[in-house]
Amino acid sequence: MELLLLRRTSSNQEEPMALTRGQIEDAAMEILRNYGLADLSMRRLARDLGVQPGALYWHVKNKQELLVVLAGRILAGVGEGAVEGATAGESAGAEAESHGDPVEDAGWGAVRRLAGEIRAALLEVRDGADVVSLAQAMAPDTLPAVGPCARGWNRAGSARGTPVGARAR
């Protein structure tokens, strides 16, 4: 759904402007990349888009929803399913050819690769880790890369005999 808005030009004339969700997401990502999470407010976003803050709420429910979408964009390049597929393949291959290392046999390499991809994606955007952490807390099932990484990490950790959540003594 597009909302037709009027934007004031530098000559103080009004011109029609159709605001889309994509424009909002792009502008929000630009603010995040250039200034960080502290400067990403709905008022700032509206100002940068040249609209009233209320116009944003036709497209996004609230800032939390926008952060979840931005987190998805941050992690968009991360190999979805890499741990799920690679762990199963590595585990199956490990039965036929064991390396003697239960972590490697459980797919630790795949987990490390995915964790590395996530880390690289987080470092590309200012405050990317904060945005993804907030989104994971608010909507844990919406970030496809995080779940497989955590499950792979837990599988690899339990193969070592140390569950990932367990504390060292």
Describe this entry's structure for a reader.
The protein is mostly helical and 169 residues long. It contains 9 helices and 2 strands. It has helices at 21-35, 42-49, 53-56, 63-74, 82-96, 102-105, 108-124, 128-138, 146-159, and strands spanning 3-8, 14-19. A two-stranded antiparallel sheet has the order 1-2. A hairpin with a 5-residue loop joins strand 1 and strand 2. Helix 1 (21-35) crosses helix 2 (42-49). The longest helix is centred in the C-terminal third of the chain and has 17 residues, at 108-124. Mean pLDDT is 78; it is low at 1-5, 86-98 and 100-106.
* Approximate strand percentage: 5-15%
- Span between termini: 56 Å
Which term fits the overall shape? elongated
Total strand count, please? Answer: 2
Number of helices: 9
Fraction of residues in H or I helices:
55-70%
Radius of gyration based on Cα positions: 21 Å
Question: Overall pLDDT, averaged?
Answer: 78
